[in-house]
């Protein structure tokens, strides 16, 4: 009855309500520091800004953080675990696509960012029990990311061997060759990091 904006809510309205009632209501349910998450989501999703790959990944992580916090209160008739599973799926897909379309440096950074996520099993064990349904598809998500790495390595390898053809040796191909070779080295290092993260 006293909510700042009446339903039905748009995403922008919903985030405005969070901010308006944070101190009096939501800050008593979840850590107050999560207000920065609300502000981050509002800034990037409700102000007409274009969201790039890197920002999208951050926003998905922030969304997961918020949903995780509210899960300690309730599963909201099963809606919250379902939302968490969908956001998590989007996050993993986003990481896979980044590997394929960004430069080798950006791709390497994304794969390194995956390593701590794979090690967060202790934190995820604290989720509401219904969240464990989402855990069953975890191996498929990991496989999807690794498949993206494998495809990228294949592309780099083809690029390298094509440039070894003496008939195609020019300044441009030399630059492309070196770029592909360095990218391949970084991706291999990232794969090793992921393998160690999984084994731990």
Automatic annotation (TrEMBL):
This is SWT1 protein. One of its GO terms (cellular component) is nucleus. PANTHER family: TRANSCRIPTIONAL PROTEIN SWT1. It comes from the Eukaryota. InterPro entries: SWT1_Regulator.
């Amino acid at each position: 009855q006293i909510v700042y904006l009446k339903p039905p809510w748009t995403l922008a309205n919903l985030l405005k309500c969070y901010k308006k009632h944070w101190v009096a209501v939501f800050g008593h349910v979840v850590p107050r520091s999560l207000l920065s998450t609300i502000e981050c989501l509002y800034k990037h999703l409700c102000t007409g800004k274009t969201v790039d790959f890197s920002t999208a990944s951050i926003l998905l992580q922030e969304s997961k953080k918020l949903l995780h916090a509210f899960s300690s209160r309730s599963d909201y008739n099963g809606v919250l675990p379902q939302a968490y599973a969908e956001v998590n799926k989007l996050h993993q897909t986003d990481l896979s696509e980044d590997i394929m379309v960004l430069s080798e440096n950006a791709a390497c950074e994304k794969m390194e960012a995956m390593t701590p996520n794979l090690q967060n099993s202790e934190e995820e064990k604290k989720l509401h029990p219904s969240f464990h349904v989402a855990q069953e598809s975890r191996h498929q998500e990991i496989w999807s990311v690794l498949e993206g790495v494998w495809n990228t390595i294949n592309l780099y390898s083809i690029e390298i061997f094509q440039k070894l053809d003496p008939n195609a040796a020019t300044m441009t191909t030399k630059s492309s060759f070196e770029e592909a070779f360095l990218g391949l080295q970084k991706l291999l290092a990232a794969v090793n990091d992921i393998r160690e993260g999984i084994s731990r």
